[in-house]
TrEMBL record:
It comes from Liquidambar formosana (Formosan gum). Keywords: Coiled coil. Residues 604-631 form a coiled coil. PANTHER family: ENOLASE (DUF1399). This is GRPD C-terminal domain-containing protein. Residues 482-661 form the GRPD C-terminal domain.
Length: 770
């Protein structure tokens, strides 16, 4: 049996030319730092997308007037020769200017007819320099146009101007949703942009030499980003492509209709020149925004400038990357295309998720082109993917024997040209893997039952009694340990249930009043003194104190974060009759709401079951009612000036005590919400709906056996044969993914006993359900 190896690297691009060999002499010279320019480009599109004024028609029309009548004459007068001045206009004008430059032919005609030259844009990429350029522009503007405000102060009630530059209005209107094409966070990473620039150079090389007789070339998303960035600096772009203007007209524009034949022709040209798949991770070919929006993305990540959870040293950020694996057979494998017993390829990961085994028969792959075999998202902690060549030995894929294996490690791919590596398996099958740079993704946290503790945080145990000289342990608290996506202990949640001193056969437990049943979250992991017996960490980072609710509410909690949670329950509607209100007493102007169910980006869309992309997503959904599916889920939505329509910053399931938290949301607040809702519901319906009465650590799946969130399949890789809920987002089928192995067994066994020192069932039933 062969052992796992890295494999012999095949030349990345063994055709006419390698991508890494494309030099400035081999194609046109790009006279701008495309990497820095593209990074600012994505940031600018994000700012425009978050603007609350630009979508309004009145603002847009005024912006076009200001651009046409005021800005362009001003920038023309300030331009000396072909060098644009280091000034930047206000956002509304910059947006119109940007959209205008994305039509180079129209922009050139406009500039030459009005100013007899093309007006350029300054190359300002540093944020500090951009602020200075904007301030300098404001000073010049105020001197030249004292009656015109620098900022756009259009009034929605003002009538539309009589004359409108219709061409400009059309260009600006159609570019409005452009950010959706480049919103994935890896597109701002320098490593990704360096790879994209290299592929753009390869695209220009093909365009310059091999497009005679071809119709149009379709750029991938990474190449498109570089092309639009290049265009947005009009004088640079005009000078760089001067010798190949006709060829540039063969590139499919960002909003043009694309034919399948054009996509296939572009792929074949690229493969012929570079002997590489044209698509890659982070460089897809889906130009239809409506189609992209109709498919629920398997992961949700966004560009985030802040991580408020940095304050908690016990929380380790989670990083995700996108992975694509392409396969192509060597010429000697031609006979195997018809031979169903030729073997199969199995995809696994180096670390985590040991149960992951996705098989593809070798006979499925072509000789004449690259085929995407797997498309998935992996946590960086998985380290890489393994590809095994196996020969069948029994029925289907069972009893197979390993022939050869290769590994694609993330660290190797991050150092590779274009973030892409090619290798061979058994000198018969060629494989190319590509990735995107790892970027921070939402935190995943779950609470698991643990032992009962006393007031000091020590577990109730003879070990602790001996350590304390047999001094009785005071107070009784239910405990929950918070584990992150990798099974690390982050926090300990403690729920006060009883008071009084206890020793075996000694005093009778005393149930504390509802207002004394406080909850606390301590940062860090247990300090184990003997086996699984230990003490909770000392630092308290969050508390929840029950309060007497007003008449219309059934429960109320005050959090140390300054937030107040109120819960209402209509008994006639069962759990579905719950409603919540959350407000911050310290910041009354802040607005936050709790929505029942999986909302916004967490919504599990239901569309035609005939779609292959839907089969893995909706298999379980069809078997349950809508209310049952959503039960236990709550979406936390924050409203700010930047997000007046609200942004979902966390999803929690209070029945399972599981949360997904964006970096900009406080994980401790979300955990307090989760445990407070469960505690209140248990009190109201007189039922232990979330297994709060479990007072022992349950058996967890071994680390690496079925890690939730470590590997998520892209919808394009889903098939009926891949139905594991562990390859889907956890909230698509939360119970199957997250219920501990022993939970059902214990809750169905009332005879399961705890030690007298921990307190009997009556104490906890009275403490939770009086």
């Amino acid at each position: 049996m062969s052992t796992i190896r890295n494999g012999a690297d095949i030349s990345v691009g063994t055709g006419t030319r390698s991508l890494s060999e494309i030099s400035e002499q081999a194609t046109i010279r790009v006279s701008i730092d495309l990497v820095s320019a593209a990074r600012r480009h994505v940031g600018f599109l994000r700012t425009v997308a978050e603007s609350q004024c630009l979508p309004h028609k009145s603002t847009l029309l005024e912006a076009i007037r200001r651009y046409d009548e005021l800005w362009m004459p001003l920038i023309c007068d300030l331009t000396v020769g072909s060098t644009p001045p280091m000034v930047l206009p206000p956002l509304d004008i910059e947006w119109v200017w940007y959209c205008h430059t994305l039509n180079p032919v129209m922009y050139k005609q406009y500039c030459e007819s009005r100013f007899s030259k093309i007006i350029g844009k300054p190359a300002i990429f540093d944020e500090e320099n951009a602020e200075y350029a904007l301030m300098r522009c404001r000073e010049i503007w105020n001197r030249r146009y004292p009656s015109e405000t620098f900022e756009n102060e259009s009034d929605a009630d003002v009538k539309d101007p009589v004359f409108v530059n219709e061409d400009l209005l059309h260009e600006v209107s159609k570019q409005r949703p452009l950010y959706l094409k480049f919103s994935e966070p890896h597109m701002s990473e320098v490593v990704y942009l360096i790879a994209a620039r290299q592929r753009y150079k390869g695209f220009l090389y093909i365009l310059q030499r091999l497009t005679d007789g071809c119709s149009r070339l379709v750029p991938t998303s990474d190449i498109l980003l570089m092309w639009l960035t290049h265009q947005s600096y009009p004088t640079v772009y005009a000078g760089d492509v001067k010798e190949m203007e006709a060829e540039m007209g063969k590139v499919v524009g960002v909003w043009e209709t694309v034919k399948d034949a054009e996509i296939e022709e572009t792929k074949k040209l690229w493969e012929r020149v570079f002997d590489l798949p044209y698509e890659k991770a982070g460089g897809g070919l889906d130009m239809d925004l409506e189609r992209v929006a109709s498919v629920n993305p398997p992961v949700y990540w966004e560009v985030s400038d802040t991580d408020v959870n940095n304050r908690y040293k016990s929380m380790v950020p989670r990083f995700l990357l996108e992975v694509c694996v392409f396969v192509r057979l060597n010429s000697q494998m031609k006979a195997m295309q018809k031979d169903k017993k030729s073997g199969f390829l199995r995809l696994r990961v180096v670390r985590c998720h040991r149960e992951l085994k996705i098989n593809k028969p070798i006979s499925n792959f072509p000789l004449d082109s690259w085929k995407k075999a797997w498309h998935l998202y992996c946590e960086f902690g998985t380290r890489g993917v393994l590809l095994e060549h196996r020969s069948p030995g029994g029925r289907c894929f069972k009893g197979s024997s390993l022939q050869d294996s290769i590994a694609f490690l993330w660290n190797d791919l991050l150092r590779a040209a274009s973030l892409t590596l090619g290798r061979e398996v058994d000198q018969q099958v060629r494989v190319v893997a590509s990735i995107t740079p790892p970027v921070q993704a939402p935190y995943l946290l779950k609470c698991v039952p643990d032992r009962v503790t006393d007031d000091s945080g020590a577990m109730i145990s003879d070990v602790i009694l001996r350590m304390n000289g047999y001094r009785p342990q005071e107070g009784r608290w239910l405990s929950r340990t918070v584990l992150d996506h990798a099974g690390r202990e982050c926090f300990v949640v403690r729920i006060r249930v009883g008071g009084g001193f206890w020793r075996r056969g000694g005093e009778t437990p005393s149930v504390v009043q509802w207002e004394d049943r406080v909850m606390e979250i301590r940062e860090g992991s247990w300090s184990y003194v003997a086996g699984s017996i230990g003490k909770a960490p000392e630092k308290v980072v969050g508390t929840a104190i029950p309060k007497e609710p007003s008449e219309q509410w059934k429960a109320m909690w005050y959090f140390s974060t300054g937030d107040e949670l109120m819960i209402r329950w209509e008994s006639s509607s069962a759990i579905s009759g719950l409603s919540f209100q959350l407000k911050n007493l310290s910041f009354p102007d802040s607005s936050v709401t709790l929505l029942k169910g999986r909302k916004m980006q967490y919504e599990v869309k239901k569309i035609s079951s005939e779609s292959k992309n839907e089969e893995c997503q909706n298999k379980e959904v069809e078997e349950k009612g809508e209310d049952e599916e959503e039960e236990g889920f709550v979406t936390l939505v924050r409203f700010t000036e930047e997000d007046p329509n609200g942004r979902a910053t966390a999803l929690l399931n209070w029945k399972l005590l599981v949360v997904e938290v964006l970096p900009q949301e406080d994980a401790v607040l979300v955990l307090l919400l989760c445990i407070s809702i469960l505690r209140s519901v248990s009190e109201m319906i007189k039922e232990d709906v979330g297994s709060l009465l479990i007072r022992r650590r349950l058996k967890e799946a071994k680390l690496g056996a079925r890690d939730w969130g470590s590997v998520i399949l892209h919808p394009s890789s889903c098939s009926p044969s891949i139905s594991s809920p562990y390859l889907q987002p956890w909230y698509w089928n939360a119970e199957a993914v997250l219920v501990s192995d022993g939970a059902d067994h214990i809750t169905r066994q009332p005879a399961f006993s705890y030690s007298p020192a921990e307190g009997g069932d009556k104490l906890y039933k009275r403490g939770i359900i009086p």
